[in-house]
Write a structure and sequence with these properties.
With 289 residues, the chain is an alpha+beta fold. Among the domains are: 36-135, SoxY domain (Immunoglobulin-like, Sandwich); 138-238, Sandwich (Immunoglobulin-like). It is 20% helix and 43% strand. It contains two helices and 17 strands. The longest helix is centred in the last third of the chain and has 30 residues, at 259-288. The chain starts with a helix and ends with a helix.
């Protein structure tokens, strides 16, 4: 009898565990993975860095969320070859940056285009995703010239392979500032038949010791990405330092308190305490009398 009861209890326990296991499997099958999205922006700074800004996101419950801490593989695609370049891991904002020493680290295809592919293989939460970008290499040469006492920024955009000028592309001229660059000239400066632009520079731009750093930017072109050249000059108006940090003012820190605020209050304190002591001494004399 006892053996039958133990057998029944064992079967009931086994059935319960089997039910829980099957329920978890059914629930796991019902949970759908979200589709990951990858965006890539190519940036080249003349005589500087070459990199790709990568962003990963997904649509979850009708909201766009950033995908952090995932590995995205980078490949250089050729006609019959797929060359692994490395990988980039996204940060908490779903962003990452893949740097190259130069464009010589990758190869062009037969059409003189660079073809790169960024692949996320997927995980428990998100499906796999890939993004390919295709771009050509261009150069920007820029310098400042003076005509009739007016300063101009001149820049030329050319194809690296053919050395031909690139026509009808918009270049932006701006000055570096602490928070965001200051745009100079028109919003769109289209290159002419020589691939050149000429933009007048205002003569009232302030800079530390008159030093300014200009940027000529080909911004987010579909064919060429973002290309930027920096030009340094001393044509700005020197900034007059009006800081009172090292002076003794009312709003300075404690160790820079004005002298009169140190002397006058201390004289008042000494005078008041001196009067109090004088009165106390006289009170003792009156008591003795």
């Amino acid at each position: 009898m006892k053996n039958q009861k133990c057998h029944i209890v064992f079967l009931a326990f086994l059935s319960l565990m089997l039910f829980i296991f099957c329920s978890e499997n059914i629930y796991a099958q019902k949970v759908k993975k979200s589709k990951a999205r990858i965006s890539v922006a190519y940036v080249k700074i003349m005589d500087g860095d070459v990199y790709f800004d990568v962003k990963a996101s997904a649509r979850v419950n009708k909201k766009t969320v950033k995908i952090s801490d995932i590995e995205i593989l980078v490949f250089n695609l050729l006609k019959d070859d797929k060359i692994a370049l490395g990988k980039v891991t996204t940060n908490i904002d779903g962003e990452g940056r893949f740097k190259l020493n130069s464009l010589n680290d990758i190869k062009r295809d037969s059409t003189n285009n660079y073809n790169l592919q960024f692949i996320f293989k997927g995980n428990d939460q998100f499906k796999s995703a890939k993004k390919s970008i295709l771009f050509k290499d261009v150069n920007i040469k820029a310098n400042i010239i003076t005509k009739d006492s007016i300063n101009y920024m001149t820049a030329t955009l050319t194809n690296v392979v053919t050395n031909n000028p690139i026509v009808d592309e918009s270049l932006t001229v701006q000055v570096q500032r602490l928070f965001r660059p200051l745009r100079i000239g028109e919003e769109f400066n289209m290159t002419d038949e020589k691939g050149a632009i000429l933009v007048a520079i205002d003569d009232d731009i302030p800079g530390v010791d008159g030093s300014l750093t200009f940027e000529v930017v080909l911004n987010e072109s579909d064919d060429y990405g973002t290309v930027k050249v920096l030009v340094k000059s001393t044509i700005g108006i020197p900034i007059i330092d009006e800081s009172t940090f090292d002076q003794r003012t009312m709003w300075s820190p404690r160790n820079k308190t004005p002298i009169f605020l140190l002397i006058f209050p201390n004289l008042l304190i000494v005078g008041v305490w001196g009067l109090i002591i004088y009165l106390i001494i006289n009170l003792f004399k009156i008591v003795k009398l």
